[in-house]
Design goal:
The protein is of the alpha/beta class.
């Protein structure tokens, strides 16, 4: 499909063109280009041409992005309604469209001002959910299925993989496909299950190609083999054509003399000498000829040859021939893609599968669909699903080209325009879903598709994001819809100095040429906005021979300086959560508060590490590591020397036995001996299952008796501990733990957030989480640190690099030997693609910065007699990817640094001893009594910082009751009708589900539900205040605004708009009160929340241009109390 390419238009011209509602577009919008504003403008303009708001659907990548876009649309409409005219030109355009939307809104009585539910701004997953819920039978999704989280899915995938083992044959002459795979994996069942589990988590990438299973006879098997081998052959030919197109026109002519000379000893060169054009050599059968040429010009490492020897076929007398080749090499060096293409030719796979490859591949082709069937069976039994299943069912409900369903016809009637953001991170399956939704659309029926993305920000390969599909769509469109291609060029976010630095850096870091197979994306220069001139600083912090602890401490000093010397938001962005363990610990030690979004793993948190040690020790007496960890930890606090004295020369004895050895215990300090007496007394009561207490209860009791609560510093830690106990309760069996690794695997998958809504400027997150965000100051630490590599799959593939995905797929099972060229080629191509994405990840990180960017990276320096030499950073690190732009800076700064060359210190620095924390054991806290303050290296009895912490689950459950009541009130508002008490009781399962999701324990569920139902009953009976709950306005309204010159994101429980158009900010408080006067309690609650209410009122006033009244609603007192701000 021919597409009109308008990428040469200016930025302003492209923006104006994008608002032409008669055309469909695909727009490349780099970081900071204001693409969201453009999306909103087109969305508003489309509404002005629609009869129903549901005709326009806007798709975003995340729920957060959907909420923010919806909020900005509402803000524009509210500004238009209040005649609040913006000053900025680009906002003025939005304002004009919003005014027209209000006119249409009034004409058709949409009511957008008072209810945003009719605005279809959502994620693709949410759209899929709508489809399967509207058509549960036709989609085969069923009713009421729960979408489970990633860490929960691990068990489900493993169970499906294990079920496939039932296929193992009982007869020696009938070897099953599962058994063939097991043999291929050396009989390792664990590896077998892990491989198939990983394949299930990526089944959306290969399931369409393998189908639901093959009933393969020999004829069908031959056809499949021919098709897959033809795909490999096409790949080989295409790679040859890439090389041919990059070579000089006179290539053959200039080398004829050389080929004639080499043909004397090697007949293969004779064909090259006699060839008239390179095109006649573009055949998979001729790849050996291309390998000959590659070896002629390149060394084994892929570098250009600088001289030729007898080994290359050139004796000393062949001067003319050598000169001819070196001249050609010199000319070709000016075109770097030639060297890359020549080198790639050597690693192309063979055009046919060998017997071993095909035998295991055909077994996988038959086995994998059966494993998928097992997974679907488990889904049906448990009434659960994952997002892949939901997307498949949604696509099924829409039918196909030959069979269009009633639902598809209905959606085609309702949806007339689709806008999709972050298109570069859309998966192959999601592309297919979009094609299904827009099937039958063309440029003549007034239906449009508007796609916005930035291939330079494609960073979600692990979710099967196909940047190559975006690149193909810019040329060929999607389905039957022609797309006009536009490029936005201006960066309105970052200061001019930073934008110039981005251009200079990524011209060198990102590849020069596009490669669909590997997903390589060339850099597009950005133009800085005039308003940001003279803004921006770029600081390189070069570290030399620093260990991880030293680098972490240095990073904290940079953060401290930034907090003291600047204003505005600060973000610490890292490639992987694993790089944050030491840094977060350093921040906590320095008392620096931070907001962390899904960063901390439960297994990394100090309060959980101690609980793991207790759990493992109680489960297995011989778990030496667990017992030593417990003795070394803060609850006991033995020193390293004492531990050594305790266990020396006793490797065969359990630690439990050793602490009962009086002779060994006497080697400890008097204080440690006293602590051990108490420790043994506590453990003795709980070390064996008693048939009464569960393992979960025994661990909790030991934790209490050993003063575990003394380690708790805030409510977040209590919440984390409760999550741990919930997981332990789920997996323990008969008061014990069969496999400690299962516990750690489960809690390792749970991420926790420390998202304080207070005045905290410092934010900590991964680069992936920062996508779409911006910060005044960005710090990138640990650039030189390596992260854990990805695991291998039993079956690898390449796909999505052409329009015909079905026929460009290349499958390669795990190689039976090291010489498997097909497997090696696929692995190498995937690895290259991952490295290219790493470059784009850096681009995303850099472009989050508005005012300043600081990068921190350590290199290893070795000292020789004459000089110092920097070891080039690994290419798999962020520093390694940036090295072409940083090498000179590091070499220059090295001369002025005092570098540590003590090899012992450098190599063993990972064993730096942490500060030992101990608890005051003179105090043994009973339940409900305040524990002592944690101390560092000495005993302290300062309890002042503990006064605000409630050491019971009561306070936590009160919060959860409030959360459930809030959800219920939001649901009631959206339904528009107050249910009866009987209807409330009929929804008890839903309320319990909400409680489970908040980690309410089994023994506490009845108490929590009793309080929830009591509160909801009071709400239902409080008819006087129903208008404030059900009346027009907004429920759970998210707003971002300024408060005390800082940006805050808040969620207001209810905005009520009365008949006089007076706006009310209402905050729900599910508090209870016993004893004392109610009026005194209410007064204290108003004082307690006055700052919060004032902030809510001011931010909402700035948002809506309406000065609101403020009230607290106490459902348990049936009281709405107006608060004077």
């Amino acid at each position: 499909m021919l597409i009109l390419n308008k990428s040469q238009l200016s930025d302003q011209e492209s923006r104006m063109e994008a608002l032409d509602l008669s055309k469909s577009f695909i727009i490349q919008a780099p970081a900071g280009s204001g693409k969201t504003e453009l999306l909103i403008q087109r969305y508003l303009k489309l509404l002005t041409k629609s009869q129903q708001p549901e005709e326009v659907v806007a798709i975003t990548f995340t729920n957060k992005a959907a909420n923010e876009m919806k909020q900005r649309v509402l803000e524009a409409i509210n500004n238009a309604n209040t005649k609040t005219k913006p000053e900025a030109n680009h906002k003025l355009q939005t304002y004009k469209f919003a005014i027209k939307v209000l006119q249409v809104d009034k004409k058709y009585q949409w009511g957008l001002l008072h209810s945003h539910k009719r605005m279809k701004i959502l994620t693709l997953d949410a759209l899929c959910s709508e489809i399967v819920n509207r058509s549960p039978i036709e989609s085969k999704f069923g009713f009421g299925k729960k979408i489970v989280s990633d860490h929960e899915l691990l068990d489900v995938y493993q169970a499906a993989a294990k079920s496939s083992l039932n296929d193992l044959s009982e007869y020696e002459d009938d070897i099953s496909d599962a058994e063939k795979l097991l043999v291929h994996l050396d009989g390792n069942i664990s590896q077998y299950c892990n491989h198939l589990s990983a394949m299930l988590s990526t089944r959306d990438q290969w399931m369409d190609i393998l189908g639901s299973g093959f009933s393969l006879d020999k004829t069908n098997e031959v056809k499949i083999k021919q098709q897959l081998e033809e795909n490999i052959q096409n790949l080989i030919t295409n790679q040859q054509l890439l090389l041919i197109n990059s070579l000089p026109d006179d290539y053959l002519k200039s080398l004829k003399q050389v080929f004639d000379y080499l043909a004397i000893d090697d007949d293969s060169f004779l064909q090259l000498s006699q060839s008239i054009s390179l095109q006649e050599l573009s055949s998979y059968e001729e790849n050996d000829l291309w390998c000959l040429q590659s070896n002629l010009f390149l060394t084994k490492t892929g570098a250009w040859k600088k001289r030729l020897t007898v080994k290359d076929g050139f004796p000393p007398e062949a001067k003319k021939e050598k000169e001819a080749i070196l001249k050609i090499i010199n000319n070709m060096q000016e075109l770097p893609e030639i060297r890359s293409n020549l080198d790639s030719i050597r690693y192309l796979p063979e055009p046919y599968y060998d017997e071993d490859q095909w035998d295991i591949l055909i077994s996988l082709i038959k086995l994998l669909p059966n494993v998928v069937a097992e997974l679907k069976n488990i889904f049906a039994i448990k009434n659960i699903a994952d997002y892949i299943e939901m997307a498949d069912c949604a696509r099924l409900a829409l039918g196909n080209e030959l069979s269009i369903t009633e639902l598809a016809l209905s959606m085609d009637y309702k949806i007339k325009h689709m806008l999709i953001d972050e298109m570069q991170d859309t998966s192959l399956r999601q592309y297919q879903f979009i094609e299904a939704v827009t099937r039958g659309w063309d440029d003549q029926d007034d239906k449009t598709l508007f796609l916005v993305g930035d291939p330079m920000q494609s960073i979600f390969r692990f979710r099967n994001a196909q940047v190559s599909k975006f690149l193909l769509s810019t040329k060929h469109g999607i389905g039957g819809i022609p797309l006009h291609f536009l490029i936005l060029k201006n960066n309105y976010r970052s200061g001019t100095k930073l934008v110039n630095q981005f251009n200079e850096t990524f011209e060198k870091v990102l590849p020069v040429h596009q490669d669909l197979l590997k997903g390589s994306v060339p850099y597009t220069q950005a133009i800085p906005a005039i308003i940001n001139r003279e803004i921006g600083s770029y600081n390189i912090h070069a570290l030399y021979n620093k260990d991880a602890y030293e680098e972490s401490r240095y990073t904290v000093s940079v953060i401290n300086n930034k907090l003291e010397a600047t204003s505005g938001s600060i973000a610490i962005l890292v490639r992987s959560r694993s790089q944050l363990t030491l840094l977060l610990e350093s921040l906590r030690q320095k008392g620096i508060k931070y907001n962390a979004i899904e960063i901390d793993r439960l297994t990394d948190l100090p309060e959980i590490i101690d609980l793991i040690a207790i759990t493992r020790a109680l489960s297995h007496r011989m778990d030496r590591t667990a017992w030593l960890s417990l003795l070394r930890g803060p609850m006991i606090g033995l020193s390293w020397l004492e531990l050594i004295a305790l266990v020396k020369d006793a490797s065969s004895k359990s630690v439990w036995n050793l602490i009962h050895d009086d002779q060994r215990v006497k080697l400890l300090s008097k204080k440690s001996q006293q602590v051990l007496i108490k420790f043994k007394k506590v453990i003795l009561n709980y070390i064996d299952p008693d048939g009464i207490n569960s393992l979960r209860d025994r661990v909790e009791l030991v934790w209490y008796r050993l003063n575990g609560p003394a380690l708790i510093q805030n409510d977040d830690q209590l919440e984390n501990i409760q999550k741990f106990f919930t997981v332990l309760e789920e997996i323990e069996c008969s008061g014990n733990l069969d496999d400690p690794a299962e516990l750690e695997q489960k809690i390792d998958g749970i991420r926790v957030s420390n998202d304080d809504t207070g005045d905290i400027r410092l934010n900590v997150m991964t680069i992936h989480k920062a996508k779409g965000l911006e910060f005044d100051h960005v710090i990138l630490p640990s650039l030189g640190r390596v992260t854990r590599g990805s695991s291998k799959l039993v079956l690898n593939w390449l796909a999505g690099h052409s329009d015909d995905t079905q026929n460009d797929i290349i499958f390669g099972p795990i190689g039976a030997n090291k010489n498997d060229k097909l497997h090696s080629y696929i692995q190498s191509t995937i690895k290259d693609g991952n490295l290219l994405e790493l470059d784009r990840l850096i681009y995303v990180a850099f472009t989050r910065a508005i005012k300043s960017l600081d990068i921190i990276g350590n290199v290893t320096v070795k000292q020789s007699k004459e000089s110092m030499i920097i070891t080039t950073p690994s290419k798999s690190t962020l520093l390694g990817r940036l090295w072409p732009t940083l090498k000179l800076t590091y070499e220059k700064k090295m001369c002025t640094e005092n570098i540590n060359f003590d090899s012992d210190t450098v190599t063993s620095s990972i064993y730096v001893e942490p500060v030992l924390q101990k608890i005051d054991h003179l105090y043994l806290s009973p339940f409900g009594v305040e524990p002592p303050k944690i101390i560092n290296n000495e005993l302290m009895n300062n309890k002042s910082q503990q006064n605000n912490i409630e050491f019971s689950w009561v306070g936590e459950n009160a919060k959860k009751v409030g959360v459930i009541v809030h959800r219920w009130l939001d649901m009631v508002f959206n339904h528009g009708v107050m249910p009866s008490i009987a209807e409330m009781h009929s929804k008890e399962d839903l309320l319990i589900c909400w409680a489970r999701n908040l980690y309410v324990r089994n023994e506490q569920i009845n108490d929590v539900m009793s309080r929830v139902k009591m509160t909801i009953t009071n709400i239902i009976e409080d008819r006087v205040n129903h208008e404030y709950i059900l009346g027009k306005g907004y429920s759970e309204l998210p707003i971002t605004g300024l408060w005390n010159d800082e940006r805050h994101s808040i969620i207001i429980d209810k905005i009520y708009i009365d008949d006089q158009d007076q706006h009310w900010v209402i905050d729900y408080k599910a508090s209870t009160h016993e004893g004392g006067r109610l009026s005194d309690f209410v007064t204290s609650e108003i004082e307690r929340y006055s700052d919060q209410l004032n902030k809510y009122a001011k931010i909402y006033e700035n948002f809506s241009e309406c000065k609101p009244k403020v009230a607290l609603y106490f459902p348990n007192f049936k009281l709405l109390k107006v608060v004077v701000i």
